[in-house]
Amino acid sequence: SDTKPQNFLQQILSQDLADKKHTKIVTRFPPEPNGYLHIGHAKSICLNFGLAQEFGGECNLRFDDTNPGKEDQEYVDAIAEDVRWLGFTWAGDIKYASSYFERFYEWAIHLIKAGDAYVCHLSPDEARAYRGSLKEPGKDSPHRNRSVEENLLEFEKMRAGEYDEGACVLRAKIDMASPNINMRDPILYRIRKLAHHQTGDKWCIYPTYDFAHGQEDAIEGITHSICTLEFADHRPLYEWFIEHLPVPSKPRQYEFARLELNYTVTSKRKLKQLVDDNYVDGWNDPRMPTISGMRRRGYPASAVRKFCELIGVTKAASTVDVGMLEFAVRDELNESAPRAMCVLNPLKVVISNFDGGTQMMTQPVHPNNADMGERQLPFTKELFIERDDFTEDTSLSRKKFKRLVLGEWVRLRGAYIIKADEAVKDAAGNIIEIKASLVPNTVGANPPEGINPRGVIHWVSATDNVNCEVRLYDRLFNDAAPDAGDKNFLDAINPDALIVISNAKAEASLANAEPGVAYQFEREGYFCLDSKYSSKEKPVFNRTIGLKDNWAN
Ligand code: ATP
Ligand code: MG
Ligand code: MG
């Protein structure tokens, strides 16, 4: 990649290797297992694993599990599956911050012995008042100058469970007047009398993110600890711990701008609310911007990776148009998706001059890729076409309506040209059937003089097809900035983001459709089998994305 322009992280890594500051790059992706991963995390995954790949290094998957209250094994499993699905392999075994708890504890004692930490009994409200503000320096806690012996004893009591939650904390002794509030004697340990998904009841004190993160990096030999911009103010603290502890390596923290997408919410807390309050059908609802939602909806992992590459990595926050993600999906699927036909809203067509039986029509699986093979479409006397593809209105121009008009011709994709002879109606005047005739010898051949089909439409046999449910998805929010300012994102939920069509008719070959494979339903969009609700009797197809961007203006 000598010719490609490098982002600021690639430049740093190249320089560090050139300077022999490191012989091998080690990065990590450090999710907290308190929810499912979303598209923002995908950016971090692609970045951390991508840099490791590009520079011949390694990337760890490490669970930052220092907060047992909100964490769960379900999330651990889902996150690992999502990273794997995105196409990345972590170095060695999965890592857990919790497996370093004993070492963190020893390091806390190291700080106490050095006079750099103390047990503080201020209540949370008092501690807040003592902390000061951006304009005002903080005040020293009355417990700040306890003896080392007293601190060791108090900390031991904290560990032994002798104090209630909130009764006291262990704090670093740094600088209550620092302009950086993170440096005003930050909390290292708090009491949480909760079982932990990895360590069970072993601990009732848990390290804070700040006291854990850099030390996890140091233990694992992480060379470049890449995080989002909101942690820039924590970097001095990250470095303070690395300086004051006997850590085995000295990682450095770098920050990049988090991904913000319009029409999308990327906060685990808000996504969890959508799930918990049943606005969506679980974390992997195809409308969700979660990795598992995108997977269930049919987004290819390669398209998500491509999108992350397209948006690049910067230090300046900005909002990306979700249309770019959709573009990446459409672009990828146009290349790779097998073609098929499915009639969403069926209208019966009876071909008067076709004598029963079945004529197999051969179509390529992909129009531009012969390697993908061919498929067989049973053509029968009774067919279905899309209700919207027929009109009795003969005044519509050929340009406006390139489909079937009463008394005129249209080509059935991969089959005959037909003419609509009569629209049969029920007592209420609704069209219930079209009587049509085919033009002989027009399969794969031009029609005779004087017959001008208006266009090409899709169809399926009415007697040999797959009855299926089709779910049409759209953006989950109809506001470009659903959670901006003091807006309530729940008010912006798009009520039309899911439309269920229960009696669609798909071509017979789709009886063998497989989950995880997206098909282009010709003229309708890209669809894939739903992994949750499909059955052999009734397949359910999710619309991954339409053929065109209907939101562009
Ligand atoms: P959320 O705010 O959604 O809860 P988080 O940052 O708390 O996200 P973590 O599990 O801590 O969630 O995230 C793991 C990694 O993913 C972190 O390194 C974090 O910086 C990164 N990350 C999270 N959200 C984004 C985003 N929108 N864009 C880029 N990286 C992100
Ligand atoms: Mg986090
Ligand atoms: Mg969070």
Concise account of the structure shown:
With 553 residues, the protein is α/β, with parallel strands linked by helices.
Oligomer: single chain
CATH class of the largest domain: Alpha Beta
- Give the N-terminus to C-terminus distance in angstroms: 36 Å
Count of discrete domains: 3
Count of separate DSSP helical elements: 12
Structural class: alpha/beta
Please, what is the CATH homologous superfamily of the largest domain?
Answer: HUPs
Largest sheet: 7 strands, mixed
Low-confidence regions: none
- Ligands: adenosine-5'-triphosphate, magnesium ion
Number of strands: 29
What does this structure look like?
This protein folds into three domains: 12-256, Rossmann fold (3-Layer(aba) Sandwich), CATH 3.40.50; 268-338 and 468-545, Ribosomal Protein L25, Chain P (Beta Barrel); 342-457, Beta Barrel (Ribosomal Protein L25, Chain P), CATH 2.40.240. It contains twelve helices and 29 strands. The strands form eight sheets. A seven-stranded mixed beta sheet has the order 12-27-28-29-25-26-13, covered by helices on one side. A seven-stranded mixed beta sheet has the order 23-20-21-22-14-17-24, with no helix packed on it. It has a four-stranded antiparallel beta sheet with strand order 4-5-6-7. A hairpin with a 5-residue loop joins β21 (417-425) and β22 (431-439). The longest helix has 16 residues, at 39-54. The mean pLDDT is 96. Adenosine-5'-triphosphate is lined by residues 30-32, 40-41, 43-44, 64, 227-228, 258-259, 266-268.
